[in-house]
Amino acid sequence: MTASTPGRSLWQRHQIIEKNSILLLIGILIAVSIGGLVEVLPLFYLKSTIEKVDSIRPYSPLELMGFNIYVREGCYLCHSQMIRPLRDEVERYGHYSLAAESMYDHPFQWGSKRNGPDLARVGGKYSDDWQRDHLRNPRAVVPASIMPGYPWMEKKPLDPTHIGEHLATLALEGVPYTKDMIDDAVADAWAQGSGDDASPDFLKRYPKAIVRDLGGNKGQMTEADALIAYLQLLGTQVDFKIYDDKANIR
Ligand code: HEC
Questions:
Q1: How remote is the CA of residue 74 from the centroid of ligand 1, in Å?
Q2: Which residue has its alpha carbon closest to ligand 1 atom 36?
Q3: C-alpha distances out from residue 118 to 41, 83, 96, Å
């Protein structure tokens, strides 16, 4: 059959592209860019790709220091923080994660590997004592655990001197830290981490922040205080009962 034969089948015409690598490459580029445009273009017209949830606030200075320790120690290498909307996940870990719940995480901590369980809703699951014992030596509370211990954390004093600068940097990225929050960051870290009574100002800025002696060392502030403040907050910011009642899901 020659090129001029009328009524060639589609298959035969496709062979022309298949036999010419440049034509095939151009064809692939066109097909892939159509797919890309369909995915990317709508994002420019959406006001926001993250549905806002009112109760979600930025981290307090102490929680942010805990977040930094979590990143520094590479906890994300073994733990994810993203509960997928699949039945087994939801039954094990709780309500699936919302985009808004990690909107103030820079960098996000979704993780990609689960040597240990997902931590997105670990806040409030255990007591502070349990968290402290577990960090010191995981096998003291979970005999078969393969998690490494971090015994120095409860001894290493926490130095919040520069946390205000971190808040200011996150503000540049769009995290809604106000000037007062940035200016008072060091005092706010002490207010939450020392285990003494926190000022009403602090609680107004960071509603539902946990103010108690997290590290078991009243008057002092260690890395364990910060990490436990962060862990105990995880997944507690949204009251899913309100949403599920509205949607009639039980
Ligand atoms: C080598 C992998 C590994 C690393 C690194 C690791 N973990 Fe774990 N983690 C585990 C495993 C496995 C478990 C389950 C057994 C247990 O409870 O100890 C676990 C359990 C936990 C739990 C209890 C979760 C639950 O729902 O029962 C918390 C909280 C936790 N890890 C926090 C951390 C923090 C914080 C860090 C970083 C400082 C960290 N882990 C680093 C493997 C790891």
A1: 11
A2: 75
A3: 33, 7, 11
